[in-house]
Design a protein that fits this description.
The protein is of the alpha+beta class. The chain has 5 helices and 6 strands.
Amino acid sequence: MANDFDGLVMAAQFGQNKMAEHDLWKAAFNCGAWYFVADQTGDDAAPVVGAMDGKPYLIAFTDEERAERFSADRARKRGGEATPVLHMEVAEAIEYAVSLRDHGVEGMLFNNGGYSFHGLSGQIAEMHNRYGRSGG
């Protein structure tokens, strides 16, 4: 069963306690994979890095359909073709995000748009240890 990430984000933003934020991250970490839009086609493709508050963030999605919509919207704005959707297991994606810190990428922005949520790479790795499948 898919999680209602829009509802979880709303609860986390407007909730009266920290449990809603806990539930949001726990659901994110328990996805089978996270999805990314490739910056180009071909063998050298890497996940798109965008900006939030003027700082670089890796853009991730909790489901493939959101990533496909983002790729199509991005292509329309650029006047080109949609780029592929990539996927990584959650632990692998976190390792990748942490490795990007050496290149100035601050963290991860999930589900870009009105119901997005984000975190710094180090904080996401720590939360994964607490909330993720391996951390309970």
